[in-house]
Amino acid sequence: MKYVALLSVALATVAAGLLLGPASVPAGEFLRSPIVWQLRLPRVVLAYLVGGALGVAGVGLQALVRNPLADPFLLGLSGGAGLGAVVAIALHLPGPWALPLAAFAGAVGAMVLVYRLGLIGGTGGAGGELDPRILLLGGVAVGAFAAAITTALVSLAEATELRNAFLWLWGGFSAASWTTVLVMLVYAPLPLAVIAAAARPLDLLALGEEPAQYLGADVRRLKQLVYLAASLLTAAAVAISGVIGFVGLIVPHVCRLVWGRLHRTLIPTSFLTGGILLAAADTLARTAVAPRELPVGIVTALIGVPLFAFLLRRWTVS
Amino acid sequence: MDRELIVAICDLTCRYADAPRDALREVSLEVNAGEFHAVLGPNGSGKTTLVRAALGLLRPTGGRAEILGRAASEWSRRDLARVVGVVPQREDNLFPQRVRETVLLGRYPHLSLFGSVRETDRAAVERALVACDVRDLSDRWLWTLSGGEYQRVRLARALAQEPRLLVLDEPTTSLDLRHEMELFELVRELVDARRLGALMITHHVNLAARFADQVLILADGRAAARGAPAEALTRDTVERVFSWPVAIKPFDGRPQMIPLRQRKDAP
């Protein structure tokens, strides 16, 4: 029943994304309109995919660091992606893919750095083990460092470039096309499958690392795989649409309240719910102040912060 | 009755990275099916280290630890979890959880990657709930349980793994007399009725002497004594290991320790 409701809301969100927009499309031409087929549909599908990816990355990461208040962007990826994007703008790299690719490279660079910092013990990194606490602290440190360099570059740049970089960082789907949808459709399934396959061991990890091992989880490999998969999903999301906060934080929380703590249901429902949240936020972002457009990261923050404050109180009271 | 060797530890030596001395030094232990072993010793004497090394979480620097004839480090965690059920000393409850869900976690090593919970798994969970007398609590939240009930639920989870060996790390710490006795009785019953092996770390010298077939006393990482309670728990050994004067009196054919007061003039 709850699943039927979830699927209905998902379909309704996509339908709303197709129907609403600054340009009015006559009802008779709706099914033939290029505005619907070439602009709105790829955009709403892309927003849905990115939202779902962020939701699943959030679930995996919260289980990994064993902290229900962790956000995928805590791990320094947004800082790395921002730096990559600003470098691309500063160097005037040509082509429509320069910016997302540079951002992706920056995010992956930050990921590798944080991963190395979080690897404790062993020699040469071979026998090391990820320490989730160090991972979080390392993420904050790497993010701050990247942000400092980004700000230095922006302060040296000219005004219009600065505005571009700034708006890009806050996220948006205005550049969505069927090509980007295709890229996401090819890229996302592998990391999603890795996290889905780890569903049961992630349940065990909530007990602690040692108890999880006694119940059959290969904790060392589990942490590495889930960290890499969650980070790669987040890196793709940030490359496609900039930094979109709170989706990866709020969605797992809401799903845990409705469906319980087991990851076999938490992972698919977080994908569906994350998609709903981001697709709805994007529709709002492009219709609220039409014909202008809000960065979608601002909309998710405006929705997410009050919701987060509410959940935080609930959490600390219970 | 045939003796079926489950755990074989021989001259096991362990040292944590950067530690100045060995946490465990040349300790040996053999646990057969149908035997209840207790590991005694003061804090920091290497009891938990022994369990970690025996179950492959810690690579020994010397000696061997084998489970069912295979080195502990060669077992995959999943295969080992089908043979050994552990009640760890501590664990977290990050998210609220019900009793039946908790016990079902014990079936995870038996489930396939994307397969769902089967009828055999549900049956194993029911059996474990009944065996530990917690079936009536199935739908309760964990945080509403008393300390004794909580420990029985965790033992039920270990039983749901359908193991050959149970390992319990200080399961009765912070339990009152009745719950403590119930837990020892339950472990003894499981060992006798199902021919499980049991290895329990405990601070209760007297209950270990009453319930266990064999005791191993650790001091500073070395075995101070090992054998049947009557042989191992001598006044000399106990006083040396625990650094306190005691008297040992027999009760029901088992040695019982009575700590002595040091100020004899006290009223």
Distance between the termini of chain A: 27 Å
- Low-confidence residue ranges of chain A: none
Number of extended strands of chain B: 12
**Count of alpha and pi helical runs of chain A:** 14
Largest sheet of chain A: 2 strands, antiparallel
Q: Runs of chain B with pLDDT <50, length 5+? A: none
Average pLDDT across residues of chain B? 93
How many helical elements of chain B? Answer: 9
Strand content of the residues of chain B, in percent?
A: 25-35%
In percent, how much strand structure appears in the residues of chain A? Answer: under 5%
**How would a crystallographer describe the biggest sheet of chain B?**
6 strands, mixed
Number of strands of chain A: 2
Biggest sheet: strand arrangement of chain A: 1-2
Rg of chain B, please? 19 Å
Percent in helix of chain B? 25-40%
Span between termini of chain B? 53 Å
Quaternary class: heterodimer
CATH level 1 name of chain A: Mainly Alpha
Number of domains of chain A: 1
User: What order do the SSEs of chain A take from the amino end to the carboxyl end, as H and E?
Assistant: HHHHEEHHHHHHHHHH
Write the CATH architecture name of chain A: Orthogonal Bundle
Short description:
The complex is a heterodimer of chains A (318) and B (267). Chain A is an all-alpha fold.
Structure, explained:
The complex is a heterodimer of chains A (318) and B (267). Chain A has helices at residues 2-19, 34-64, 77-90, 98-118, 132-156, 159-170, 178-187, 189-197, 199-205, 209-214, 219-241, 247-259, 263-287, 296-317, and strands at 119-120, 129-130. With 318 residues, chain A is mainly α. Chain A has one domain: ABC transporter involved in vitamin B12 uptake, BtuC (Orthogonal Bundle), CATH 1.10.3470. A two-stranded antiparallel sheet of chain A has the order 1-2. The mean pLDDT of chain A is 87. Chain B has 267 residues and is α/β, with parallel strands linked by helices. In chain B, 31% of the residues lie in helices and 26% in strands. Chain B has 9 helices and 12 strands. Chain B has a 6-stranded mixed beta sheet, sandwiched between helices. Chain B has a 4-stranded antiparallel beta sheet with strand order 2-1-4-5, covered by helices on one side. Chain B is globular. Chain A binds chain B through residues 66, 68, 121, 197, 200-201, 203-204, 206-208, 210-211, 213-219, 256, 261-262, and chain B through 17, 52, 55, 57, 76-78, 80-82, 84-86, 88, 90-97, 101, 105-106, 108-109, 111, 113-114, 157, 161.
